[in-house]
Amino acid sequence: METTEKIVEAYARYVRGWATLPNVKCDGQLEIDLMAVDPRTGERFHIESGVSVSESYSKLTAKPFIPEDRKTRGKVAGARRTVGHFIEHKFGAPEIIRKLSEYGFEPGHYGRIIATWSWTDEAKSQADNAGIELWDFRQIMAEIAEAIEHQRTYFTDDTLRTINLFVRALKDTGQKPSAHRKETKDLPPTVGAPFWVYQNKIRRRARLHRSDCRHCNGGIGIHGVSNEDVNEWLPFEKADAARSYLIGLGYDDAADCLTCM
């Protein structure tokens, strides 16, 4: 089981609260990366991981999928980074469908999810049309980190232990301004603003924070890093202006931070 697949399973299990079964072998040397069930609703999910951190192949694309390319040197990586590859080879193969049915996953009655580093707009549209949900691996990591940050439990899961240590290391080094940011006096005036709005563009989630909130830390967040494609911090001098912006985002999940507001 690859590390990225372990992280995706950890997310499904510990953040979503789903029961999971990884690496299910199928006929034809095929494999299901992850099957999951939400015990609260009975919903079932077939999850495939296609995470590549290569600059050339990080994004999932909507390029035409040519099955022969999966066996052609120089074309394999590109072929596996297409939505069509997942539709035909990962989700649609008869051997896969047959194995899923053995576990009570009937066609049309379970969700299909691809966990990937990122995707093109065309790939998102193609996935939506096929009824496939896309999970951003970067966001998965962030949500796991947020979920376990304040826990003092000793994790027996190696993946969670590693992530937990990573989060603690970032937090400890982040207490030194020189490690992640310049002194406030060297930054533009807005960086010292008393209020900040955080928005996660993928999860469509936003929160209004005070600058000294432990979740905000003057607009650098918990980890001292951000990705404008995924999340963003915006400074405001007045709470009313910040709250107006928050409401204007139109997110269903938009509110004041319960810790500081």
Shape: elongated
Number of strands: 11
- Helical fraction: 25-40%
- In the CATH scheme, what's the topology name of the largest domain? Trna Endonuclease, Chain: A, domain 1
Biggest sheet layout: 5 strands, mixed
Number of helices: 9
Quote the beta fraction. Answer: 15-25%
Concise synopsis of the structure shown:
With 261 residues, this protein is an alpha/beta fold. It contains nine helices and eleven strands.
Could you list some keywords that capture this structure?
9 helices; 5-stranded mixed β-sheet; 11 strands; Trna Endonuclease, Chain: A, domain 1; alpha/beta; single chain; 4-stranded mixed β-sheet; 23% strand; elongated; 261 residues
Structure description:
The chain is an alpha/beta fold and 261 residues long. Helix content is 33%, strand content 23%. It folds into two domains: 3-140, Trna Endonuclease, Chain: A, domain 1 (3-Layer(aba) Sandwich); 181-261, no CATH class. The strands form three sheets. The protein has a five-stranded mixed β-sheet, sandwiched between helices. Strands 10-8-9-11 form a four-stranded mixed β-sheet, covered by helices on one side. A hairpin with a 3-residue loop joins β1 and β2. α1 (3-15) packs across α6 and α6 packs across α7 (158-173). 26% of the residues are buried.
